[in-house]
Amino acid sequence: MLVKINKSRVGSMLVKKPLDIVRELVLDNCxxxxxxxxxxxxxxxxxxxxxxxxVGLISVSNLPKLPKLKKLELSDNRIYGGLDMLAEKLxxxxxxxxxxxxxxxxxxxxxxxxxxCLKSLDLFNCEVTNLNDYRESVFRLLPQLTYLDGYDxxxxxxxxxxxxxxxxxxxEEDEEGEDEEDEEDEDxxxxxxxxEEDEDEDEDxxxEEDEDExxxxxxxxGHDGEVDEDEEDEDEDEDEGGSEAYILVLN
Length: 251
What we know:
Low-confidence stretches: 161-167, 218-227, 236-251
Structural class: alpha/beta
CATH superfamily of the largest domain: Ribonuclease Inhibitor
Shape: globular
Strand order of the largest sheet: 1-2-3-4-5-6-7
Number of strands: 7
Number of helices: 4
Order of helices and strands: EHEEEHEEHEH
Strand content: 5-15%
CATH class of the largest domain: Alpha Beta
């Protein structure tokens, strides 16, 4: 489930939702209060993607513990250091975007060494990128890192799939595919059912026509039979001596 809230305080809007089903949370442009986002708590136990772009953060110390979080967007804030808490609160983080913050020295990135799962780090528009041997220094400091600012150690560009949270988009695509298959199956069943109904209706119509034909023949035959019996009776009476014959008709 994706929850997206822009340009407002989160607060009561979030606590009304069942937080354990939220996997992606976008709070871009929501203003923080003393470096803390109101309503963002550890109750988001299954959160895998969190975006806090331009929310006025100066530190990550007030972030809640989110053990399943994989991707964190923190660009365009005023963070200058204090990254120590990330490894403790976000132990499974794989993608971190700190672009547009106040990071000046390579040493401020040292706490990221404890993020064993970190594969991608973005530092665009941070002063640290102006240092000599910036890329070599960061890769040396963070050996677990695969991509820095979208490129690997050999300047190979990161694939698009690596820019998303691993597993999240794939599962959503699988769910959409299953939904489409279910809809196709339902459509197929409806078409088969309609065809069966049409066949049954055709059989019923043919059956009724056959019954009508049989009934018509029976009526015609029955009428002819009655006439023949009357004629036979008259013939017998004439043979017996020409006596008068009386026919009683009961209505």
